[in-house]
Write a structure and sequence with these properties.
Elements lengths: L8 H18 L3 H7 L5 H8 L18 H13 L7 H15 L2 H13 L4 E4 L15 E5 L2 E11 L7 E7 L10 E7 L5 E3 L14 E11 L3 E2 L6 H37 L1 E2 L2 E2 L4 H29 L5 H26 L9 H9 L9 H9 L3
Parallel strand pairs: 1-4
Antiparallel strand pairs: 2-3, 3-7, 4-5, 5-8, 6-7, 9-10
């Protein structure tokens, strides 16, 4: 494998801390959390105590003030641990940056420190039952009434939704008919009257992730909770952050596939068929070689995208390429790994089986891979 050059000794010290956290605080509880369809709320407070939440936020707001290469380590180690339930990355690397980049000083001071400690769990509510990836077609509305917006509508497939304390809601605040110009983002507290949550959705995989529906029935949101300073800025803000969100999926896709391959290599060395290890057969060796080569190439591309992110030069098409290619590759690799496990690959006590059912969503959220191809095609 080509040595990685984006991480320093300081990064690797941080990686050890993160690895230990997932090994001790997450992995032992996986089955219990899958049964209840969400992680224990106390896990967020433990992560906050260890300084693992909102790490890229300024120190004055409780963060570590580090760059997104440290976020990449958190995502990778979660994937290596085989966990798909903890929603730290969405909280820390999607929700918090929206507030830090576009919020007022009062909004930052009010919410970011409590997100860093785990007191507040953050979510972002974009998708609606009938709109999918088309954010300009949202039907949730926020009408100004004196000093408050009156919010009505519903959202679906919301990660961290069930445990959420603070939600960034995508809503229409205008009726110009021009789609994007009518979209705004509102900071909505879950304790608000008229805000309700559905039960965690019964998903195929990612069972411990608290994905649910959110409902807004005449929720009064203070006018000062508008994000971005004025109405109609929502779509612009969303577009600025979506490239990073899609790279996050690429980062976890490569790491998740690498983890599955490692488990499979170990399995094929120990499992015997016809008197010799599965790994001794030419077909097995060639399949493992193909996966190793393809993941090595994917790793180099994703690391380059991380470098561009740190320089604020990551293009929309670059991120779309990374998301589409690596999530497709992840599903391909893990499917091959299941095959090499034989019948045991279909048993949930084996990590590769869990990875197989969890991986499928990577090609859907963050914008389906068909949408990614459309974004790439626009640059041709």
């Amino acid at each position: 494998m080509i040595p990685r050059t984006i991480f320093t000794a300081e990064h690797e010290d941080f990686r050890k801390t993160v690895k230990r956290f997932f090994a001790e605080e997450v992995v032992p509880h996986r089955e219990a959390w899958e049964a209840q369809q969400h992680v224990d709320r106390g896990l967020w407070n433990k992560a906050g105590e260890m300084g693992l939440l909102c790490i890229t936020m300024p120190e004055e707001y409780g963060g570590l003030g580090v760059d997104r290469s440290y976020s990449a380590i958190l995502m990778e180690e979660q994937s290596y641990a085989g966990d798909s339930g903890v929603g730290f990355s969405l909280h820390s690397d999607i929700v918090a940056p929206y507030i830090n980049n576009f919020g007022t000083k009062d909004q930052k001071a009010k919410y970011l420190p409590r997100m860093a400690t785990g007191e507040l769990v953050g979510a972002i509510a974009m998708t609606e039952p009938g709109t999918g990836s088309d954010l300009q077609a949202v039907k949730t509305t926020a009408q100004l009434d004196g000093d408050h917006y009156v919010l009505n509508g519903s959202k679906i497939f919301i990660t961290n939704g069930y445990l959420s304390d603070l939600v960034i809601v995508v809503a229409k605040t205008g009726n110009s008919g021009e789609g994007a110009k009518d979209i705004s983002l509102l900071l909505v507290e879950a304790a608000s009257e008229g805000f309700s949550k559905g039960k965690p959705l019964n998903k195929v995989g990612m069972k411990a992730q608290d994905t649910c529906e959110l409902f807004f029935d005449k929720v009064r949101v203070p006018k000062e909770n508008l994000l971005g300073g004025k109405e109609g800025m929502g779509f612009v803000m969303l577009m600025q952050e979506l490239a990073w969100e899609r790279l996050m999926i690429a980062i976890t896709s490569v790491a998740g596939a690498e983890a599955a391959l490692k488990h499979t290599i170990d399995y094929t060395k120990s499992r015997k068929v016809f008197g010799k290890p599965v790994g001794a057969f030419q077909n097995t060796r060639f399949k493992l070689a193909e996966m190793k080569a393809e993941l090595a190439i994917a790793r180099v591309y994703v690391d380059r995208c991380i470098e561009l992110t740190l320089k604020k030069k990551l293009g929309v098409d670059d991120a779309a390429t990374a998301k589409y290619w690596t999530s497709d590759l992840m599903c391909k690799v893990i499917d091959e790994c299941v095959q090499l496990h034989g019948g045991y690959g279909y048993m949930l006590e084996y990590p590769v089986a869990r990875a197989w059912i969890d991986a499928r969503a990577q090609r859907i959220y963050g914008g389906t891979n068909e949408i990614m191809k459309e974004l790439i095609a626009r640059t041709i």
